[in-house]
Design brief:
373 residues; mainly alpha
Length: 373
């Protein structure tokens, strides 16, 4: 520091400094406005796309057949809820073993409550998957006392398990369905032929992507990439906040190192198995619903159907609950699988699944209210 920097400022210099500070504050305040406007416009656009897709599907759906099939469920409707509950139990188990390896013992049912709440956010709002992953570390900190660093690490690790397990899930579905559909697949032409051919490539790609993600988390590359991307955000106030929170990135890096220490590979194995169970429960849900609707489809075919639909829905994460994308995927794939009356079956399947989601959203809100009381 030079002597000139320690000398008192004159009146003109002080006024200029205040003007510069004021201009900087105004720029900081106005800088986020444009991105916020673009985000708001994007959300409205995606909501419009979802509504348009639903309207098109509703126009194409066979509602008379769908209503007849829905009437077949009757008092067996509670059975529709059970596979989702099993899916959440498996997902919570994967999260719990991950937190345990990070050094935090959490009770299962409070953690299950958070997992169900996160799933409700996923299906209730546009961009729900991103928002839910953002909320999880906050909930872990304020509900279960898990520090932000360990909470963030657990969310990233379980996301890697999900990608890896989805790849295994698709490969398993293809292997089981191949013996049943190999002769039918040989007759496929056009887009249907390429969809069938791409299934194993998709599964292998997701499996490798999940393995690569775990590798980058182990070596700290993923954290460096995220930090580098955030430092490029053109908002000065956000950059200063990021600089002040640099210790949080260091703490999260330490959490990853701790996870991949002694017992880390075993925990990864358990996390992968539990997460694969989560995916299989979702396939079981589709199989149960189709059976209750009177659609005769083997479990291997339901497994293939749900694995592809879940991939379509994940790709359309910007839509609220994958609205429209999920229904379109079911509509097309049921026709490809040769289901009689596919439009009516797809309409009834979509209505049942969305009704189930509404039930769990209400249940998650009720659990949240009871917890706060």
């Amino acid at each position: 520091m030079t002597l000139s920097t320690l000398q008192p400022l004159g009146p003109e210099t002080a006024l200029a400094s205040r003007a510069d500070d004021s201009a900087s504050l105004e720029a900081d305040a106005l800088a986020p406005a444009a991105p916020a406007t673009r985000i708001r416009a994007w959300r409205w656009l995606m909501a419009g796309v979802a509504v348009a897709a639903v309207v098109i599907l509703a126009a194409r759906g066979d509602w008379s057949t769908a209503l007849t099939r829905l009437g077949n469920i009757g008092y067996a409707w509670p059975l529709v809820l059970l596979p989702f509950a099993g899916s959440m139990v498996c997902a919570t188990a994967a999260w719990q073993v991950t937190l345990f390896q990070l050094g935090y013992v959490t009770r299962f049912f409070p953690l299950l409550r958070l997992r169900v709440a996160a799933e409700a956010v996923v299906v209730a709002v546009p961009g729900g998957p991103v928002l839910a992953e953002t909320c999880k570390p906050y909930w872990l900190r304020h509900r279960l006392g898990v520090p932000y660093a360990e909470g963030t690490a657990s969310v990233a690790l379980t996301k890697a398990f999900i990608v890896q397990a989805e790849g295994l899930y698709i490969l398993l579905a293809f292997a089981l369905a191949y013996t049943t559909w190999s002769e039918t697949a040989a007759t496929l032409t056009g887009p249907a032929h390429w969809v069938w051919r791409s299934v194993p490539l998709l599964g292998a790609g997701l499996l490798l992507a999940g393995m690569w993600l775990l590798h980058t988390l182990r070596g700290g590359l993923a954290l460096r990439l995220v930090h580098g991307a955030l430092t490029r955000v053109p908002v000065p106030r956000f950059r200063r906040w990021l600089s002040d929170k640099a210790h949080m990135f260091d703490a999260t890096a330490g959490s990853f190192s701790r996870f991949f220490g002694v017992g880390g590979n075993t925990t990864c194995g358990f996390g992968l198995v539990f997460t694969l169970g989560q995916w299989l429960m979702e396939a079981l849900e589709t199989y149960v619903i189709l059976r209750l609707l009177g659609v005769s489809l083997s479990f291997s075919s339901a497994l293939l159907l749900e694995s592809l639909v879940s991939t379509i829905r994940a790709a359309a994460f910007f839509l609220p609950a994958g609205l429209g994308a999920q229904e379109m995927g079911s509509f097309v794939l049921l026709e490809l699988l040769g289901v009689p009356g596919a439009p009516g079956a797809a309409t009834a399947l979509a209505f049942t699944k969305r009704s189930k989601e509404v039930f769990w959203i209400v249940a998650a809100a009720a659990l949240h209210f009871v917890k706060r009381r």
